[in-house]
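Morning, I've got a small favour to ask if you have a moment. I owe you a coffee for this, so here goes:
>
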Amino acid sequence: MANNRFREKIPKRVVNKQENKTKGVTKQKKSSSKGFYYSFLTVILLLCLVQITISAVLNISKVISYKAKIVQITKTRDVAKALNEQLKDNINNFSNVTGLEAIARNNLKMSSEDEVLVIINTNKDEEEPKEVKQKKWTF
């Protein structure tokens, strides 16, 4: 009897044959709508995955091209730095009297008071032939 006290009284359910048929139809409708819903979500998920993959490939190609550009710019910068150092050295050399004398001797063909300047010219036949453009006379 102690067990009966703790048991809950569950009302009996009356089953109607028509009710079972209509419940089966609604279950089919619910399961088909769930299937459509899951299919729709799967298609959306696949589209998102495709978009992510395309974005990743494009970003990787951009990274590669940017790294190549960085290497090229770095080389250009190093060449420019070397040229600047050379120009600074030239400025320092040309600001001295000896540097100016070297320019005068080499480029301007000048000599000092106690020096003799000898210039040796080469024949024009030995030099590389230059292209001569012929003029066309029109009257």
